[in-house]
Amino acid sequence: MTQDEMKFAVAQAALKYVVKNTIIGVGTGSTANFFIDALATMKNDIKGTVVSSKATAQRLEGHGIKVFDLNEVEAISVYIDGADESDGDLNLIKGGGGALTREKIVAVVADQFICIADESKLVAMLGSFPLPVEVIPMASNYVKHQITQRIGGAPKVRENFITDNGNLILDIKDLKITNPKAMEVELNSITGVVTNGLFANRGADVLLLGTSNGVKVVTI
Ligand code: 5RP
To answer: What is its EC number (predicted)?
Structure first.
């Protein structure tokens, strides 16, 4: 199976978690795009969606699926999104596509978070993928210094990239993430950080992992 076939398979498997007649949270990225295309087959069964990026809104609307502002909805039954890495406890690194802040907001509001990913994303310890941090542009040098002094790793501004919120992304390479929950909180305590791509204090509830032997359901 190719990586895309695995992404397609997990996107199809995620349809089982879609709660009819409710609002569905939809994430960002190539795996989420497979899910959006799958969701189109049951668009009349849901009330609509709340999204984590402008790109996702555009793709959903292209399928004729209603996109609500988060402030217009009472609840989100389930959030379905990909990840850059997951460990066995379903702590995640997200933000490879730069949509981490809106992704984290939708994830915390949703009753359930279903992560969809191919098997290359499952790791023993998070951190091989550079950890994205969204920062207010005027604070980027300050935040870089604070990260180097307090947390370690090698933060670098993502080139030619501005988030949907008008901010920059720092990608931190060479991090040893032994305690994802603590590091998530520590990074967010630096003034100028909007949020970081560790999804540990609100990790996934279920990981649908695409493997060459089919879709594995991982829970903790
Ligand atoms: C975007 C994300 C994505 O979920 C993550 O980058 C995975 O993307 P893909 O499904 O393309 O591998 O966090 O900000």
So the answer is: 5.3.1.6
Q: Are 24 and 18 in contact (CB under 8 A)?
A: yes
Residue closest by Cα to atom 8 of ligand 1: 29
Which residue minimizes the CA distance to atom 1 of ligand 1?
Answer: 97
**Residue 210 beta carbon below 6 angstroms from any ligand 1 atom:** no
Cα 122 to ligand 1 centre (Å): 13
**Cβ neighbours of 120 (radius 10 Å):** 11
3 lines ligand 1 (CB under 6 A): no
Q: In terms of Cα–Cα distance, which of 95, 97, 46 is closest to 67?
A: 46
Contact 39, 24 (CB under 8 A): yes
Instruction: Evaluate: CB of 164 within 6 angstroms of ligand 1.
Output: no
Domains and CATH numbers, the chain: 3-123+201-219 (3.40.50.1360), 131-195 (3.30.70.260)
pTM of the model: 0.97
pLDDT, tens digit, for every residue of 145-167?
999 999 999 999 999 999 999 99
